[in-house]
Amino acid sequence: MLQTVKKLLRPGYRRLRAVTQELAGTAVSFPVTKHTQKLARLGTDYGGWVFVDDQTLTRSVIVSCGLGEDASFDVEFAARYEADVIMVDPTPRAIEHYKGIASRIGQPSTAQYSSTGAQPVAAYDLSKVASTQLRLCEKALWNQSTRLRFYAPRNPHHVSHSIVNYQNDYSTETTYIDVEATTVAELLSAYGIEQLQLIKLDIEGAEVEVLTDMLGNNIRPNQVLVEYDELAVRLPKAETRVRSTHQLLLDSGYSLVHREGKNFTYLREEASVAGRAR
Hints:
The chain is of the alpha/beta class and 278 residues long. Helices cover 32% and strands 21% of the residues.
């Protein structure tokens, strides 16, 4: 009975969360394009994402950056589409979380999802996922291959680190760890990915530099899912960075087809035409 009530309340919770994010500083105008594409949502209320449900995703390879401690989208996507998911995250807690997932490959879930961003690994239904489908790159995604500072969040209980350190007013003086960084181009080469169907970026502000580099190298995934974390800090610099990146995506042939708080879903216009043709 309790689970039924939770299921009925879930859409309202997602809407409330989106409204809360708007009031917290994400109420910046980014018009969503009218479209006829079928949208789907996978993952928890915290870690889930909306994307275009297209047949090209079946047995595809996608890149999912920012694992943290909620891999619900990655696991559910791999199971639904028989897809390979390359997860990218150098954070020590994320690496430990991945190891827990890897140890349970092939097993059904034995626990419920948490309402927080820290999921028990037993909550993932891995019964339809093979060990080759979920792989972790223990590097940060950036616009060059280098070593850099990965700044810790203000709240020590939080897991997400940031290269640009927007959480601390872009300071270079706060606590950090040293990590290796790679680029989208290098990642695709390393994993032999010729056509990237979808990339998900939840990388704490680094999405600006990563998307600029990716598009500058003429890499055009069919779908780009991006969380603009900087919208929450309500700083002119942050809004300028997000607006310029949003415009760059539009100028590069993408349409914004969905927005949920800070999470934006872009579809490449050529992919949209191809989808309608099928």
